[in-house]
Amino acid sequence: MEVDEYRLMADVEHSHWWYRSTRHLLREILDADTAGGGRFLDVGAGTGATGAWLAERGELVTSDFMPLALELNRERHTAAGFVAADVNRLPFETGSFDVVLCVTVLCHQSIPDPRTAVAELARVVRPGGVVCLWEPGVRRLRRAHDRVTHSARRFSRTDLSSLLVDAGMDVERASGAYSFLIPPAAVKAMIERGRVESDLDHNADGLAGVLPRLAQAEQAVLRRVDLPAGL
To answer: What torsion, rounded to 10 degrees, do the Cα atoms 9, 115, 110, 199 define?
Structure first.
């Protein structure tokens, strides 16, 4: 990821609608698994914008490959540990975490084979524990933001489920999210062809609150069913 993008993430994590909505959805997804406390790992945590809330529930260890990301995370959040680590070779004992969260890491060009990374996530979670993957969807939808974040791939639900099954895990849920953003993102991809540009530079309020309201409505649906696709 471009260095400036980390600073931008840190600056807007509390004001940008996408981060607020994403944290809310992740809290709902992992509520039952974290309510009783435990030991949690946020892998590729970046500045902490999506996973730092886990420290409110138990002992959180934050890891990232980039020193700047850990520095910005430490300035803004608390955790039991901030560890410089490569997701392909995590420096943690087998079965040492109850929940492992991994948000937009497998898509990165620094991951030569996502299967290796997911096998590591499966290794460090305890038997019966939970690995939560959150990755960009719609394989062909490569946009300017992907180039800023050095994303090399996008995933379908089947892609991510297969990675978990191959690592010896059972899939409890596999759903799309932000499905309502697929059409406008497809249009943006055509307009932005060849450009390198961050989504975080625009529409922090989500089109005057329209997008966060759509996200809230979608989250109500996700409490009952899984969606076939999402951004």
So the answer is: -30
- Does the global pTM surpass 0.90? yes
Structural domain contains residue 117: yes
- Torsion (CA) 170, 173, 174, 178 in degrees, nearest 10: -150
Structural domains of the chain, count? 1
Residue 227 lies in a domain: no
Instruction: Print the domain residue range for 57.
Output: 3-222
Q: What is the mean pLDDT of each run of 10 residues along the chain (231 residues)?
A: 76 93 98 97 97 98 95 96 97 98 95 97 98 92 71 93 98 98 86 65 83 97 97 92
Specify if 103 maps to a domain: yes
Cα separation of 22 and 6, whole Å?
A: 17
User: Considering only CA atoms, which of 156, 227, 208, 205 is closest in space to residue 21?
Assistant: 205
